[in-house]
Design goal:
The complex is a heterodimer of chains A (178) and B (640). By secondary structure, chain A is of the alpha/beta class. Helix content of chain A is 36%, strand content 25%. Chain A contains five helices and six strands, in the order βαββαβαβαβα. Chain A has a six-stranded mixed sheet. In chain A, a hairpin with a 2-residue loop joins β2 and β3. In chain B, strands 1, 2, 3, 4, 5, 6 and 7 form a seven-stranded antiparallel sheet that branches. In chain B, strands 9-11-12-14-13 form a five-stranded mixed sheet. Chain B is an alpha/beta fold and 640 residues long. The chains are: A alpha/beta (178), B alpha/beta (640). The interface between A and B is medium-sized, with 26 and 25 residues. β2 of chain A pairs parallel with β5 of chain B.
Chain lengths: 178, 640
Amino acid sequence: MIQKKICMVGAFGVGKTSLVARYVHSIFSEKYQTTVGVKIDKKVVQSHGEEVMLMLWDLAGEDALTTVRPAQIRSASGYILVVDGLRRQTLETAIDLQRRVTEVLGSVPFVCVLNKADVRETWEVHPGELEALVAQCWTVIETSAKTGAGVEELFQTLADAMMQEHHAADSTTRAIAG
Amino acid sequence: MPPTPQPGPSQANRSTADIAAVLAAIELAVFEPASSGRFRLLSTPPQWLRELMPALEEGYEANLIDRFPLLEAFLPEAEEVWRSGERTSSDLWTETRTKGDDIHLQAWALSASERPLLVIEAADALHRERQLTLQYAHETALQYETIQRLNQQVERAARAKSEFLAMMSHEIRTPMNAILGMADLLAETPLSADQQRYVAIFQGAAGSLLDLLNDILDLSKIEAGELKLETVAFELREVVARATELVGIRAAEKGLAIESEIAPEVPPWLAGDPVRLRQVLINLLGNALKFTEQGKLTVRVRRDPEADDLACLQFAVSDTGIGIPPDKLDTIFKSFSQADSSTTRKYGGTGLGLSISKRLVEAMGGRIWVESTVGSGSTFYFTTKLDVAEAQPETATKPGETAAATRAPLRILVADDSEDNRFVIRAYLKGTPYVLDFAEDGATALEKLTTRAYELALVDVHMPAMDGYAVVRQFRDFERARGRAALPVLALTADAFQEAVEKSLAAGFTRHLAKPIRKAALLGAIDGYARAHPRPPAAADHSEHEVTVDEELSAILPRFLSNVRKNPAAIVAALARGDYDTVRSLGHNMKGTGASFGLPQISTLGDRLERAAKEQSPDSVLAANHELAEFLDRVEIRYR
C-alpha cells in the first residue's frame, strides 16, 4: 500500500492534535494538552481508486522556544498548516512556517486550515483576509475539530492532491525509463 | 516486519547479558545497527518493548524504523555521532500501547568502545516534566492573548460608544439650539404673567436637558480617556467667586447663603485648569444646595495638610443638609448612583455630577471624599496638585461689554444646514447693524466666501457633503493663493471639548462657538471679533473729529448726517448682493454732497467708494466704508 507522510504544523494551541484525534479516532476533548515531541497516527483512505496509508505526524506547536525541526518534516509528501481563527498571530506563524517548510520540502501539496469554526463569529481572522493567500494557490479550509466540520474534507483534499502528485511523478519516471 | 531469529548469546557474552538484564530493569533497550537498516537488540527487552514488539527477543534483529517511524528523522543525526564518537538524543515521541494508554520514548545515539549503539528508553517522567512546563507556558500565553483580545474589544466598544454619544450630542444639540433660542426670543416679547411663567419653565427645562447632555458627554469623554486638562495661570479667588456666584443665585431663592474662605497661606495665582476646577466646585455646591433646606453652604480652601507642596490644595464644600448614611458614602461617587433611588425622584439629578467630579479631581492629581452626619450635613473634600503661577495683568474688557451703539455694520455669512438654526441666528441679530447672508450647505458657503465680501463668517462644522472643516480649509487656501488677509471664521459646533476646539483651530477657524448658542454668547463673540479687529483709526487727534460749519447749515445738516449714517449698512448689503451699482451711486452721491455740507471728508470717502465700486474691489469698498462709518461715529459738529 502506498504510504504518505503528512506533517501537522502551526502555532501552539491551534488544534493540530485535536484535528488528528477527530479524524483518526472520532473524538474531541475540551481540555488543552500541549503536545511534547511527536505523535504519529495512521489512517487508510481511498484516493483515486486506491488505498493510501496516511502517516500523520503531529508535531509540537511552535512557540517562542520551539520551532519545527527540518529533520522531522523531511520526506513528508504533504503538510497541514493549522491556524486558530480566534488568534490572528497564528496566521502569521502559519505564513512563516509555509516559507520554512517549503525550504525543506520544496513545493509539495499543503492545506491551510482555519480551525475552531464552531466559534466563527468571534474569530479575529476574517476569511476574506486570506484572499491574497488563495490567490497564491493556497487551499484554505475551515474546520472545527470540536464538531468535525470540514475535517474529513481536509484530509481527503490533501490525500487527493498528494496522490495526484504521486501519479504525475510516476508517469514522469515511466516516460524517462521508457 | 517480524524480527528475525538469531543464535542465542554465547557463554563469553554472559556478563554482557547480565548487564542487558539490568538495562531492561531500568527500561532501556540497547540496539546496535545491523545490516540494511535493521537493528539488533543487545539487551533483555524491557516491559514496554515486549508490549510494543512482542516477538522481539535479545539478540534478534528488527526493522525499528517501520515500528518507530520517528527514528527515520533521527538516524541521519545518529550516524553523525557514531562517526564522531559523541552522543545525542532524539525528540520525545509517543506510542500507544495495546491496552490503549500512551508511552513516551526517547532514543539516544552513542558509541561504546567505538561500537555504535542505539538506546531507546521509556521517558514518561521526562515527558511529564516537559509537558507541565510547556502546558503552563502555553496556557499563560493563551490567557494573555485572551486578555489582550478582550481589552481590544472593550476599547473598540468604548470608542464606538464615544462616537455614538458625540453624534447623538450633535443630533440633540441642533434642535436644542432652536428650542432654547426660541424660548429666549419668546421671553423678550410682551407676555402676560401666565405666559412668562410658562416660558420660564420652558427655558428651565431646556436648560436642564442641556446640563444633562453636557454631563453625559463629559463622562463619556473622561471614560474614553479623551479629557485634556489645560494649564493656564488663574486667580483662585476669581474661580471660587464665579462658582459661588453661579450657585448663589439658586441658593438665594431657597434663602441660603454661600460663604467662602481661602486660607491666607494659599498662593493667589495658580497654574492649572480653572474651567474644570470651577466645574467641580459648581457640581459640589449644586449638590449641597439640592440637599439643604436651611442653614448655609461653605467653601473653604487651604493647603493640603498631607502634602509638602505649596500649591497642593484641599477644598472643602460643606452644607447643613440631610446628610448621607454611612453605608452609602462609598457608592455616591459612582455613575448614576445617589444614596437612595427615591432621592432621584425627590431631588432630581442623574447622579453623574459626583462621578464626573471624582474623575476630574483624579485627573488633577487629587482625590475626593466625603464626611457626613445624617441630619446635620455633609462636607465634600477634594485635593488638587496645581502649580504656583505669577500674577497676571488684568484683561482690558470682558465679553459683552461692547454696546450695540458702537457696533459696526459688519457683513456676516452664516452657513448652517439647519433652517431652525439660521432662523435663530437671524432673530438674535435682529436690531443690530449686522447684515446677514446665509448658506445652506458647505459648497454654497465656500462659493459665497470666495466670490463675495464679508467681514465675518459663522460656519457650522457638521454639514452634509462638505463639512465646515473642509469649507474653512479650502477657503484658507483660496485666501493664501491671493495673498488676502484671513477673514475671521467662527466655528459653530455642538462639541464644546478642548479637542474639538483644537480641531477647529487646526482646520483654520478663528474661534470656536459651542451650540446651543445663546444670544449673549453670539453677540459677545461677534463683538469680540469687532473689538479684536478695530476699524482703521481715522484720526489720531481728537480735533480732527471736530468740524466747524456755517450756522446756516444747522437746519439741514442733521438730516443729511442722519441719511448718510444709513449708507455704511446699505453699502455692505449691496456688496453682499454683488450690487456695485448701488455702492457706486451712494459713493457718487456722497462725493457730490459732502463738501457742500461743510464735510469734505464725506466727499473724499464718497469718491473712494465710487472708484472702488467701479473697480469692483470688495476689499477697497470695505476699507473706505469702514472709514466712513468711523468718521460718522466720531464726528462732532460745531456751528460758527
